[in-house]
Design a protein that fits this description.
The structure is a homodimer. Chain A is α/β, with parallel strands linked by helices. The first copy, chain A, has 2 domains: 143 residues, Rossmann fold, CATH 3.40.50; 202 residues, Rna Polymerase Sigma Factor, Chain: A. In chain A, 46% of the residues lie in helices and 18% in strands. Chain A contains 16 helices and 12 strands. Chain A has a 7-stranded parallel β-sheet with strand order 4-3-2-1-5-6-7, with helices on both faces. The radius of gyration of chain A is 20 Å and the shape is globular. In chain A, 52% of the residues are buried. The interface between A and B is large, with 48 and 48 residues.
Amino acid sequence: MEDVIIFGATGSIGKNALDIIRSNKKIFNVKALCTNANIAVLKKQVDEFNPKYVCVADPVQADKFKDVLKKGVKFFYGLSGLKEFCSLESDISVMAISGIAAMEPLLAHIPHTKRIALANKEAIITGGKFIFNKAKKYKTEILPVDSEINALYQLFKSDGKVERVYLTASGGALFDYSKPRVAKITAKQVLSHPTWKMGRRITVDSATLVNKGFEVVETNRFFNIEYKNIHVVIHRESVVHAMCEYADNTIFACMYPPDMRLPIGYALFYPQARMTVKGIDFSKRFSLSFQPVSFEQFPLLELVIKAGSEDNNKLTVLNAADEIVIDYFLKGKVEFKSITKILFDIYNMCPAYMLKSVSDVYKWDTWGRGKTMELLDKLC
Amino acid sequence: MEDVIIFGATGSIGKNALDIIRSNKKIFNVKALCTNANIAVLKKQVDEFNPKYVCVADPVQADKFKDVLKKGVKFFYGLSGLKEFCSLESDISVMAISGIAAMEPLLAHIPHTKRIALANKEAIITGGKFIFNKAKKYKTEILPVDSEINALYQLFKSDGKVERVYLTASGGALFDYSKPRVAKITAKQVLSHPTWKMGRRITVDSATLVNKGFEVVETNRFFNIEYKNIHVVIHRESVVHAMCEYADNTIFACMYPPDMRLPIGYALFYPQARMTVKGIDFSKRFSLSFQPVSFEQFPLLELVIKAGSEDNNKLTVLNAADEIVIDYFLKGKVEFKSITKILFDIYNMCPAYMLKSVSDVYKWDTWGRGKTMELLDKLC
């Protein structure tokens, strides 16, 4: 039995991971579950999977949760509780906390697990160096769960020398919309992603291709591929997740239906391969389309890649700004086009510094949040 | 320098191999060239590549060629000459003789080379067992050049356990034609293959999907994959050459533009990967389509796979019949629909026997040719 801890158990990644565990109870034991604030979903999960340890990071929700908890379950709460929770030992831990909030628990937890199924990209794009160093020190495997990066992880195991990689992008919910229409788009329209069911911020990031820019940076951090050899291709169907091109121009493409349970299952069962979802149905006719991406249509993709390749504090700041401005957008406080404006403004006003430690990451994250709110207050 | 011998130098595979060698003269030395009868092309190749040894199998053409040969080139001719030619030593030999005629030189040559780039499928589907046994004994690598099988060869190097494979089929020149129209089709119409430039027989075999059936059998012989796990998918663009599906339903697809120089280059440069052709152009929009294959539309595909899975003399007989009937068709002696009729007739009238040795293969090949001509004489 593999002891599994899930950070971010109540989000879509956490739910998918539990869905796989539900069908494989002889292989996995849910040792511990952690959520930020969604105690209603957590309650059901605790009842079904009987973890020995439970954590609710939000103190207000934690207070409500205490009363409904079964006896014999050890309860952690608040930020200090989360810190303690990170010292629990596991065989596999799913890190599905969203945003840069994952950084601290991720770093704290690395010494206590054999493998992290990593479903968070903000920690890698901002503090990747520090995370990989620590993982190396403690011999902790980090397996990317993000479908594109996971596809590359699978493809890189082939023994050819990879020259170039292609990350596919669905183009998001607004791909076919005109520019004036995009500027006025509502949160609801953005959140109807054509192929992937995901969290709210990442769905908006998919529409701006900020998410794809982050994946380009992840690809550089995970596989040490130069930026000039990482390409983005629009692929509306989200069936091909990534491609590797070898020196002879042969391409290996990694394909499966757009269902996050497959890459999550990959990370859980690794190095075995077990079925979690149905495969591509070749008994039906289908097409896969590819088209170049336009930086004019998606200026933030270019901006994020540029910031990533500078390898300084700017991507940390952009990530912070992106999180804040999307929050404002989803609450209806600013228009969709403000996301682009704010990110360019913050990039331009941010002085460039090297990140020398994790505390530098936090410092620039805080700086980015503060500056973004200042800018947004003027807009609202 | 790698000494290279090319059997079938004047056909499309031979020419493509020499095209690659032309651009890599510091790596490859053309030691010897062999053709059946095309002395006009051979003359040019000899002038350009200066092989030390030359062979013309057809005695009449050989006689004409003698006079034009440069001094210092050792000349082999006729079937006895070809036999001697097979004892020349090489680092890499390209076996591109077409039809079952490749069997004898292939078997004779295995002890004298380190690697065979095999572009012939008839030898594998009829006498594969004897070829692989001999190659194993002499530690000779056999690398498939056929694009689909080559794609699988590349994909199998990945360390996952392959559960199922998909071979793609362009569908050939007649895919969109109605059944009555197909029955009356001319040789010229069949020979205009949509995506691949190939030899004449294989182009007809592509239109009937007999060629794809042969590849299914090759896949079984090369990789020991059960027939039930080998699937054929229609893919008109011939960009995806084959796919492997792992236990978790992830598919790796091997993709490149339809240009035989890539798999030939793969076999020549192996284990290095070097560029021989331009890669897929992602700066342009394109689509890849997939649709199920219909055994009703392609009854010979089913017949060939059935014969292959029986693992007896029947596929040898079918191959012989196919070669003869296509020859009649290309000469305008019989209609296109006769190919299907003859192959079914010959399959049904052939008694089933195990093949115990290479001489059994030859015996049934001869039987198949004789019976086919008898049947055809009644038709013509």
